[in-house]
Description:
It is built from twelve helices and ten strands. It is α+β, with helices and mostly antiparallel strands. The protein has three domains: 8-121, Orthogonal Bundle (Butyryl-Coa Dehydrogenase, subunit A, domain 1); 153-262, Butyryl-CoA Dehydrogenase, subunit A, domain 2; 278-418, Up-down Bundle (Butyryl-CoA Dehydrogenase, subunit A, domain 3), CATH 1.20.140.10. Helix 4 (95-106) runs antiparallel to helix 8 (312-342).
Amino acid sequence: MATFPEDDALVGEYAVPDDVRPVVDRVIGFIEEEVLPYEERHGDHVGGPLDYLDGEGLLKPETRAMQAEIRQRSADEGLYALHLPEEVGGGGLSLREMFYVQEAVFRYGTGHGSGVARAMLAWTEGPSPALVHLDDAQREEWLDPLVAGEETACICITEPGAGSDVTAVSTTAERDGDGWVLNGDKRYITNGPFADTAQVLARVEDADGPAHERMAMFLVDTENPGYEVGQPNLNIMMDGITSDVHLRDCRVDGDHLVGEVGDGLPLALSWVNWRRSGRPGMCAGLGRYLLDRMLTYAKEREAFGEPIGTNQAVQWPIVETATELHAVRDMGTRMLAAYDAETSLSDLDQPATARRKLSMLKYYPEDRLFDWADRAIQVLGGYGLMHAGGVERVFRVARNIRIPAGATEIQKRTIAKTLGLE
Length: 422
């Protein structure tokens, strides 16, 4: 089968273990045989820098239709929800195994920002480990369509006044007979404009105890008249899928509560930890993409009669990136394997050592990816600043991901706390 073209000097450097190789080969095969030809056939909607966005900065209907097509094809092949347990329709892969899958997907870069290739793998819009806690009836209604790639979701945690401090959410949930009424404003909600279902974190008004014990997670059908999509949030990635969300007397039935009152914060963190656990593989994949771009350019571009790669000023950033990639891959796979042996993302009571691992695995690979992307632009020079160079969008993605799912500073604070420094 086809494999991603890699510089001869790197063949075998970043190997995939034999136990994971079959599923990684399936993922690569799907991308090269299904996704890339599909994107080429629909180049009118994703071929240019911003062809995938409409006048408001949101994804065009045509682009969203392309994502939906790839998502459902991937689900049909059993690839979309590899991260979930088999008992809920997922692939049952461990976090260590998912590292190699994430790496393979992002090995192809970020495309044009349309997210068509990335749509083959569940991301923010997909089924999260938090939904494993649904009962059988709830799973059939809310989880199964997500696993099948038929619907998408969003999670409404962040608010204008509540970011890193999740316990500061002001969205309220009031009991109303057998149901609940939600009111509040959410901000920076990925897939907020297009989701079929929303998972909303709210504070229960009549609950007792400190803030974290009064929080609950609710499932909301976005066709609910109380769910309103607000203004688009036009971010540095220009992803076209982020917006405010408003809940205005949004009434939901009693069975739309996930778990119990008091489970809201750990459920929200379960989702957040899912995103953190995927960062090492994502960063390693994008890092390898950047390294290939640097090597190719350094060998082909000439200045003063020689390839620029013969100059130490060009060699060193490439050498540093190649070395650090090994460190991130080794750190990611070893620490994820250790996390797998200790607990799982669906465990609502995370040990301090597990929290520390996820915080380290989020901030360190992200910081390295930012360095790699910055070096790639510098090595490519003026061409690196151009969209055609293929690295400027990775730089924007690298800068963006250091904040969502817990800013770098919050990760370091968590690490310090688990080391007994608070």
